[in-house]
Amino acid sequence: MSGRKRYKLIACEILFREVCFCVSQSKNIIDVDFMEKGLHDIGEKNMSEKLQAQIDKTDTTKYDAILLGYGLCNNGIRGLKAKLPVIVPRAHDCITLLMGSKEKYREYFDNNPGTYFKSTGWMERDTNPNDIDNSMTSQLGMNKSYHEFVELYGAENAKYIMETMGNWLENYKKFTYIDTHTGNFDDYKKLVKSDAEKRGWEFDEVSGDTNILLRLVNGEWDESDFLIIPPNCKITSTTNDDIVSYEKPSP
Question: 153: alpha, beta or left, given left = phi > 0 and alpha = psi -120 to 50?
């Protein structure tokens, strides 16, 4: 197997179908660990700890590098480090990975404010933060029932809390389904369109692209779209278009 590399890919399960498709096409040997989507709901510190624990399980004698199937994801990958090189896409979140470029995502985002994105992964593996024990809503005590809030804060306050919690979608006005062409899922598109109609929202469909994920597993890491973090260096975030950087260990 001359010329083939072996990589450990740690990815969010939202990208399950896209990752599996790209791994099946890759010239390299890829072992994948999928992490539950709920990591996004438990806060930066807890998400980082979960991912670091998964990285620490990696057999450093078996792999040439660790690949992250994540964007910055609300700083959830910040602080991660490994004894192997780590490669991460320059992306704020998984929408970039589904659309195929940060530039395409940024253009769509700027021209379509209030958009809630959907894909096969979001249809199949989305979770309610209130159902996760250590989610941010749970940590803030916001996963209680109306009657529990009444007992704690009184009827008027309970009504206000429930109304406020129920309005988290009020800033959205559009569903956009990202078709990454990894199979025929017209039924999902119809469900999203139907949901948009029920809410009185707009519906749109965009053509996605798996090229970032495919280049990730193929080892084609150009500097504009990927960051290669040397061993023992921590991932950091930036305020510019680089999105991610790294910090060398103290001497």
Answer: alpha
**Per-residue pLDDT tens over the stretch 208-232:** 999 999 999 999 999 999 999 999 9
- CB-count exposure of residue 37 (10 Å: 0-12, 13-18, 19+): buried
Give the number of domains in the chain.
2
- Domain-embedded: residue 1: no
Same domain, 138 and 166: yes
**How far, in whole angstroms, is CA 143 from its chain's centroid?**
23
Max CA distance (Å), the chain: 70
Q: Is residue 147's pLDDT more than 90?
A: no
Q: Which residues lie closer than 8 Å to 27 by C-beta, 6 or more apart? A: 3, 4, 218
Token pair 């589904």 in the structure block, residue: 98
Residues 197 and 214 placed together within one structural domain of the fold: no
Q: Are 49 and 221 in contact (CB under 8 A)?
A: no
pTM of the model: 0.82
Residue of 90, 91, 83, 24 lying closest to 58 (CA atoms)? 83
94 plus 162 within the same structural domain: no
